[in-house]
Design goal:
- The structure is a single chain.
- The chain is α+β, with helices and mostly antiparallel strands.
- It has one domain (17-173): Electron Transport, Fmn-binding Protein, Chain A (Pnp Oxidase, Chain A, Roll), CATH 2.30.110.10.
- Helix content is 26%, strand content 35%.
Length: 176
């Protein structure tokens, strides 16, 4: 059974592609941990801290150049990003391109004491690198109902023998 089957989740609320894209960028900025990986069956996604740039539709990640993911992304490769927002309002499954970049301006822009913990040599650590995810297309699920309204929808559905209305879904395409 998969989530795209009609009896698994019922989405009545129309959601435009523009609303879905905006919800994606809002939540990537506010909920910075996403799952990221190479889009092949033998690779697993891993949690990564995202630094998003909605204006350029790019997402940046610090990593060490001696990681498997950085090695895979060195030549620019197809990748997958999955977002499950902490507030349970937005879920996304996004495909795009992942590449390696050592942009000193972005290293400076996103550097923090938390990032520094992984790089003993600081901003010039020889193992420090950035990966850039350029999203192409994906699927979004958005439900801004909150727990109380969701419980009301579930109770109503049980009483009326109908399906609960839990939000909207949209396919999205990015400029890249």
């Amino acid at each position: 059974m998969t989530l795209d089957q009609p009896h698994d989740i019922h989405l009545r609320e129309p959601l435009s592609e523009g609303e879905a894209v905006q919800a994606f960028w809002d939540h990537v900025q506010n909920h910075t941990t996403v799952m990221l990986g190479i889009n092949t069956p033998d690779q697993h996604l891993r949690p990564m801290t995202a630094f998003s740039e909605p204006e350029s539709e790019l997402i940046w990640f610090f990593t060490r150049d001696d990681t498997e993911l950085a090695a895979e992304a060195a030549g620019s490769t197809e990748a997958r990003l999955v977002l499950a927002a902490k507030d349970q309002e937005v879920f996304a499954d996004i495909f795009g391109t992942l590449s390696v970049d050592r942009d000193p301006g972005r290293i400076e822009r996103y550097w923090s004491p938390i990032v520094a913990a992984w790089y003993p040599g600081g901003k010039t650590d020889p193992n420090l690198t950035l990966m850039c995810f350029a999203p192409h297309q994906g699927q979004m699920w958005v439900s801004k109902q909150g727990l109380v309204r969701l419980l009301f929808q579930v109770a109503t559905a049980n009483l009326t023998k109908t399906l609960p209305d839990v939000g909207g879904s949209a396919s999205i395409t990015f400029r890249h």
